[in-house]
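so my prof wants the structure for this chain in the tokens format not the other one, which i didnt know existed until like an hour ago. anyway here's the sequence
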Amino acid sequence: MAVKKSELYSSLWKSCDELRGGMDASQYKDYVLVLLFIKYVSDKYVGIPYAPITIPEGVSFKDMVEKLTSLIAIFENPALDFSKNRAEGG
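here's what i got, hopefully its the right format
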């Protein structure tokens, strides 16, 4: 099923809102558009022989999500609770 233009726009706005914070649009659009491109290329060409773009094993959008999820999980470790720490000057 093809993605509706309205669904695509809605997803883009949600991603921009998530990243925005104090960033200017000229900054976060670079991240969003790159992720959208990687997602598109992965969905379209992963595992397709003789595709115009080859997606090497381990670098698809799905692989990126798994790696980032693993990275974030490392920092969720309760041992890394900095709430009681104070920055100390040298």
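also thought this was worth mentioning. The chain has a mean pLDDT of 82.
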